[in-house]
Every structure is written in structure tokens, then in C-alpha cells.
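ZP: hey, is the ribulose-5-phosphate complex queued? I don't see it on the tracker
AM: it wasn't, my bad. submitting now with these inputs:
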Amino acid sequence: MDWGQKNRISKVIRPKTGKSVMLAVDHGYFLGPTTGLEDFGKAVKPLIPYADTLFLTRGMLRTCVDPNTDVPIMLRASGGTSIIGPELLHEGITISIEDVIRCNAVGIGYSITVGMPWERDTILDFSKWVDDCNRYGLVAMAVTAVGKDMVRDAKYLGLACRMAAEHGAHVVKTYYCDQDFEKVVNSCPVPIVMAGGKKIPELDALTMAYNAVKAGAIGVDMGRNIFQSDDPVAMIQAIREVVHNEAKPEKAYELFKKLRKPGHSPKKTVVDQEEQDEAKV
Ligand code: 5RP
């Protein structure tokens, strides 16, 4: 691996701990406005100081994030379908490598949809991203998106993560499963970050992150369980305690409660929030 690529990876996975708290705020690319991110710039700004990397679309980056920021950027590079369309996750390439570089991003995240009828297209497109990222020294992260009829178990996630690594991913983002998550991690030779999934109670989300890291994940690329939390800024700090300082979930939850401020909970103003909550994404 070239110096530039190693250097960019070190922006995402912090060398001091070998861990990462990536903040995923790319959801609008298929959900549109979602609770907690309606006013994107206002919601994300106070979280940036606690994020090791921001994972978002180029549109939100250009319109809502201060270019003077120090936070490393990973860009969502797939999309094309929406929560109301007939084929959610039938995604293709939505940005060029030139524009990724122009945005000064350290890398991209691309969803592969193993088991869906269009799995082949997403694997082949992801492989092209690996080539592009290797050519320019960027980081290619595969996101193992799970179709609505798939089960999020170690068998499925293990298959998807391993395939991502076999096709050259430098980092893999996947969901957590209660049973045998360490088998998913152990059979994937590249670093794994855990996606948070739907909003769950804070202590449960901290416990899930703790268990994922204990099983060998190098951290999280978490979205809704941070920005839809009762207090997003308190929650991201609690997540950091778990990921970087190996805090037990109960201890991190105590920190969350200590930092939590009244009135910081996002209001549910999004018109289709109930549909979003019911969708299996
Ligand atoms: C979908 C995604 C999401 O857009 C997002 O990044 C997931 O984050 P979270 O589940 O923690 O809200 O990757 O495949």
C-alpha cells in the first residue's frame, strides 16, 4: 500500500487506539429528510469535533459543511433508488473519482447488495472503485447493505463481509448480529466498522457498539443512534468512550446521562418518519 493510502487510512482509523468513530449522515440519499437531520448543517456542526470521519453525500458536504473543517471525509458513492421506489438498494455509482478527489475526501463508501438480483452489478462496480481508490491512494469502504428479505445473521453478514474483502475493500461497514459476530469479524481480513441501524435506546446502542468492538470491530460508522438520540452530542461522546477507551456500556451510559441536556432531543417533524421507522433499513 502506498504512503498516501496509508496516510488516508490513518485519518479514519486513529493510530493512537487503532479505532474509529465514523459519523454516518448519508441517509438523505435514499430517505430524504430524516429525524435529526432535517437541518443538516445545524445538526452536524456540533457533532464534528467528536467524529473521526464524516460519511455523507457530496451534496450535503458542499452545501452544509464548512470547508475549513479538519474532519476527514468519506463520500457516499452509491445510490439511485429511494424508500418509496420499487427496488430499494438497486444502487449504482453516483459520483466520479475526480469529484471525490476534488472534495478532498479520504475515500468512499459503496453499498454491495449480496443476495439481491442485482448483486453482480454492485460487486463489479465496487471492484472498479477499489481500482480507482488504489490508483489515487484513497480508501474504499464496502457497505454490506441488507435487502428487506435478508436475515442479518452471521451467515449472511459473514458472506457479504468476506466477499467485500476478497474484492479489495480496505474497510467494511456491516451490521451487528447477536450470535457469532466474532465469526463475521474473524473471517474478514480487513477492518470492520459497525453500522448502528434503527434508533434503539441509548444503553442498548452503547452495548451493541461495545459488543461489536469486543468481537473485533475497529469501531462504528453510526448514524441514527447518534443523531436521533435524546442528546446527539452527549451520545457521540459516550460512543467514543466505548470505542476508544474500552468503557463498559453502563459506564458510557452514565457519561451520556451526565452530558445530556434538556431540549436537545430531535423533534419528529419529518412527514414520512413513521414509514421510515417501519422500513427495514
Ligand atoms: C445504508 C447506510 C446508511 O445510509 C447509514 O450510513 C447507516 O447508518 P445507521 O444504520 O447507523 O443509521 O449505510 O446502508
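AM: back. The chain has a mean pLDDT of 95.
ZP: great, adding it to the tracker
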